[in-house]
């Protein structure tokens, strides 16, 4: 689908198509809980009549690094709505994302789109909106933000250093073999009548992981004491008072998820683990993480907390299940936001229900490692 420009054009101009706009990775929204989608007519001044008129082969052959191409992503079809686009075996509402950040040769058109949206009362919301959106919108936002961020971070080839071109509906970047511009500068160069042959690049031979979006695996874990009655929580110095969460960290090269859980917990808290079970996962598009949620249990005698291995945490402690249950009822919120009614100042604060840390803690105090353990 992403390489079929006839399909992409049909999707682009279909009356049900929805476009989510981003300015400096901030999405267009009515408020922090509601994204605002626009139509093809709204984005036409920036992307033109037909960005998919030419095939990918033609676009690569005619590549000109002095021309800024609007970053447009095809996100997919929502097949729950059968009133959308019907194309071959597919039927659903097309979704796109578009970067309207003013840059390069398209800055005036991008600024025009931004002014129009702001004049209509919409705004580009800053911050991590994933926590405040309904699940469906959060998934769209996460996919769009992660892909736009990846494209923005990779304007040059990691193999040969030459400028790259976004293809496959925004899901791949290719290193064209020729350039219609001098490569001494990317903006404002003189255009040659004949394309410049570029140096050989390994990414043009076979499949290269440098050409596709990356996802960085991150472990996040609820750690239970050896007697199964307490859970380990920690806090960073920048967090508001009484606010704690589960521990987390990146998976290192050649490391299994289970090994990463044990290593990160020991590095951050000094606690030593035995059993580790993967519980659930959550995408985290800041910039491109997959949070792998685990529940682990401490070995007998390994519960002593020692923060000297890693300065990341300001404090860590063991909390009994009743304290966590109470915090899950009335003490959850986004970072720095007020707690629920009934919360008593000074009591434990925890992440909101849309965060995987909340779900891991709820699973633990809900019996995941109880008399009939699920580990």
**For the terminal residues, how far apart are their CA atoms?**
41 Å
| Rg from alpha-carbon coordinates | 24 Å
- Residue stretches low in confidence (pLDDT < 50, at least 5 long) are 183-189
Shape descriptor:
globular
Counting DSSP H or I runs of 4 or more residues, the number of helices is: 8
How many strands, which pairing sense, and closed or not: the largest β-sheet? 8 strands, mixed
Folded structure, characterized:
This protein is α+β, with helices and mostly antiparallel strands and 375 residues long. The protein is built from 8 helices and 20 strands. Helix 7 (321-330) crosses helix 8. The longest helix is centred in the middle third of the chain and has 19 residues, at 135-153. It is globular and about 75 Å long.
How are the SSEs ordered, and which strands pair?
Layout: H1 5-13, E1 18-23, E2 26-31, E3 34-35, E4 37-38, H2 40-47, H3 56-61, E5 72-78, E6 85-87, E7 90-99, H4 107-119, E8 123-124, H5 135-153, E9 165-167, E10 172-174, E11 178-181, E12 191-197, E13 216-224, E14 230-235, E15 247-250, H6 257-269, E16 273-284, E17 289-298, E18 315-320, H7 321-330, E19 332-333, E20 350-351, H8 356-368
Parallel strand pairs: 1-7, 13-17, 19-20
Antiparallel strand pairs: 1-2, 1-4, 2-3, 2-8, 5-7, 6-7, 9-10, 11-12, 13-14, 13-15, 14-18, 16-17
Features:
8 helices, 375 residues, 20 strands, alpha+beta, 8-stranded mixed sheet
Question: What's the gist of this structure?
Answer:
With about 375 residues, this protein is of the alpha+beta class. It is about 25% helix and about 30% strand.
């Amino acid at each position: 689908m992403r390489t079929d420009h006839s399909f992409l054009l049909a999707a682009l101009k279909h009356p049900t198509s929805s476009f989510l706009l981003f300015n400096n990775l901030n999405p267009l929204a009515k408020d922090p809980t509601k994204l605002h989608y626009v139509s093809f007519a709204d984005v036409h001044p920036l992307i033109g009549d037909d960005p998919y008129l030419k095939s990918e082969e033609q676009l690569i052959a005619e590549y000109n690094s002095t021309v800024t191409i609007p970053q447009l992503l095809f996100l997919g079809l929502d097949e729950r709505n059968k009133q959308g686009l019907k194309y071959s075996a597919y039927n659903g509402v097309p979704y796109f994302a578009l970067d309207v950040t003013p840059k390069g040769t398209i800055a005036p058109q991008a600024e025009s789109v931004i002014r129009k949206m702001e004049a209509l009362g919409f705004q580009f919301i800053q911050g991590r909106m994933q926590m405040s959106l309904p699940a469906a919108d959060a998934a769209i936002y996460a996919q769009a933000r992660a892909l736009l961020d990846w494209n923005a971070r990779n304007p040059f080839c990691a193999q040969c250093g030459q400028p790259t071109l976004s293809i496959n509906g925004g899901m791949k970047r290719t290193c064209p073999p020729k350039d219609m511009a001098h490569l001494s500068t990317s903006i404002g160069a003189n255009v040659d009548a004949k394309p410049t042959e570029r140096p050989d690049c390994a990414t043009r031979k076979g499949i290269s992981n440098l050409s596709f979006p990356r996802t960085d695996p991150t472990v996040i874990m609820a750690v239970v004491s050896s007697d199964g009655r307490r859970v380990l929580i920690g806090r960073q110095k920048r967090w508001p008072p009484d606010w704690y969460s589960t521990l987390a960290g990146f998976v290192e090269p050649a490391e299994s998820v289970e090994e990463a859980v044990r290593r990160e917990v020991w590095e951050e808290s000094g606690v030593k683990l035995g059993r580790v079970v993967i519980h659930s996962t959550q995408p985290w598009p800041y910039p491109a993480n997959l949070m792998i949620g685990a529940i682990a249990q401490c070995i007998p005698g390994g519960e002593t907390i020692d923060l000297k291995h890693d300065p990341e945490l300001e404090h860590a402690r063991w909390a009994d299940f009743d304290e966590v249950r109470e915090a899950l009822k009335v003490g959850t919120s986004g970072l720095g936001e007020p707690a629920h009614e009934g919360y008593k100042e000074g009591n434990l604060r925890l992440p909101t229900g849309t965060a995987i840390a909340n779900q891991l803690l709820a699973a633990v105090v809900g019996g995941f490692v109880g008399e009939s353990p699920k580990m």
